[in-house]
Design a protein that fits this description.
The protein is α/β, with parallel strands linked by helices. It has 10 helices and 15 strands. The strands form 3 sheets. The chain has a 6-stranded antiparallel sheet, with helices on one face. The protein has a 6-stranded mixed sheet with strand order 8-12-13-3-14-15, sandwiched between helices. The chain has a 3-stranded antiparallel sheet with strand order 9-10-11. The radius of gyration is 23 Å and the shape is globular. It binds adenosine-5'-diphosphate and magnesium ion. Magnesium ion (MG) binds next to α2.
């Protein structure tokens, strides 16, 4: 790994940990300042899964969101970064939020991560800032160091809403597999909006338009290729898990009009050239990878996820997320941290037990929330149990292994 070590290898501390196992990727300290409901709080845990339990509104999801923001992007709520800053009771906001963490990847070592939405210098505009071991960090480096994946109640509607949500879900999975995917997606979008502007201004031919469409075609082809690769890998993983899994087998498919999902740049460029007139009239880019949809099939029932019950849809999503975690563990040697918000209460006892077993086997720290501590009791001895009292963390002593 290319990161400077902060401290000596973690092995000694691991042996001292009174838990059944130690995760290969874990946040062992999370500090929050002016982050949503937290003024200034710190949580220290062993490198094991964490269960956050307690009544509604105490800040469980807020903490998961903070962990999700250790990786680049808008985090698990997809929130505007300014809205995350703590509001005082009078309604006015604090100046900036920060999250700091110690990330352990035993036996490689520990890293100190800091992030926040703040002005990097007096008078400068607020922006998202990353620090790694005290020095300014780069978003790509952080994405690699802290892979995270989440499932939240908001995602219950994934199969019912428009294609954009499903495309985003797929692309988030792809980002970790194909690092260039995010950059190419951003460049594709920029070229698309520049092209639309030219079309609106009446331009229908010329080198400028050709060049923008060439960029869109090349990046679009790479985007499609990466999505297809991801889907093929996930389908292979999902069908390999089928025999033993407690969760239903899913089959994924990248859907779209013929040509839109093509990994062939020349074919895409032809598509853009042919749709200039139509795009100019409608004021939007009608064809291309940005129109694709992720279709998910419940293999056992041979039915589209859209037609499945809410519970079945949730089980399918868990299935996809677990398959992705195993895939990434095989590829990168470590599974992503899983942030599972209010997932467990919706599962029957058998599936709960199966989920806990997989979390322990995946060997990266999972963060689970729920109102009922009892539901997590199979994790006694494997997980830290934490509740939140008036914005501060209380770690509960559990029967450790
Ligand atoms: N920017 C903010 N400033 C202060 N409090 C906030 C902010 N955003 C959310 N909250 C508060 O956080 C609480 C909800 O926390 P949450 O983590 O969603 O609870 P839960 O434990 O149910 O998951 C609410 O009381 C909400 O008002
Ligand atoms: Mg919540």
């Amino acid at each position: 790994m290319g990161y400077a070590l902060l401290s000596s290898p973690f092995a000694d501390a691991c042996e001292a940990a009174p838990f059944a196992g130690v995760c290969a990727l874990a946040a062992t300290r999370v500090g929050l300042k002016d982050f949503r409901s937290y003024a200034d709080s710190e949580l220290c845990v062993a490198p094991v899964p964490v269960v956050l339990y307690g009544p509604n509104g105490i800040g469980k999801t807020n903490l998961l969101e903070a962990v999700s923001l250790l990786s680049p992007g808008r985090g698990l709520r997809g929130a505007k970064l300014a809205s995350v800053t703590r509001k005082h009771s009078q309604g006015e906001s604090a100046e900036a939020w920060t999250v700091s963490a110690v990330l352990a990847r035993p036996p490689h070592g520990e890293w100190e991560i800091g992030t926040g939405y703040l002005a990097p210098a007096p008078g400068a505009n607020q922006r998202r800032v990353f620090h790694l071991n005290g020095a300014p960090g780069d978003a790509g480096e952080l994405a690699e160091l802290v892979p995270v994946l989440w499932l939240t109640p908001a995602m219950d509607r994934l199969f019912l809403e428009g294609a954009q949500l499903r495309r985003r879900f797929l692309d988030r999975l792809v980002f970790a597999l194909v690092p260039a995917h995010a950059r190419k997606s951003a460049r594709y979008e920029r070229a698309s909006s520049d092209r639309l502007r030219l079309l609106r201004e009446g331009m229908r031919r010329g080198g400028w338009l050709d060049a923008l469409e060439k960029t869109m075609a090349e990046d679009g082809a790479a985007i499609n290729a990466a999505r297809h690769e991801m889907i093929d890998c996930l389908n292979a993983e999902l069908s390999a898990r089928r025999a033993e899994g407690a969760f239903p087998c899913a089959h994924l498919h990248l859907a779209g009009e013929p040509g839109d999902t093509s990994p062939d740049a020349a074919a895409l460029q032809q598509l853009f050239v042919a749709s200039r007139e139509r795009d100019a009239e409608s004021g939007r880019t009608n064809r291309g990878p940005h129109t694709a949809d992720l279709e998910v099939m419940h293999v056992g029932k041979q039915s589209d996820a859209r037609e499945c019950s809410t519970g079945e849809q949730k089980a399918l999503l868990i299935s996809v997320v677990l398959a992705d975690a195993w895939l990434k563990r095989k590829r990168h040697g470590v599974a992503p941290m899983l942030l599972l918000d209010e997932i467990v209460a919706h599962l029957d006892e058998l599936r709960r037990a199966a989920l806990f077993e997989e979390i322990v086997a995946l060997n990266s720290q999972a963060w689970l929330t729920g109102t009922d501590r009892q539901l997590f009791s199979p994790l006694d001895g494997h997980a830290e149990f934490v509740t939140i009292e008036q914005g501060h963390f209380a770690t509960q002593d559990t029967a450790r292994a």
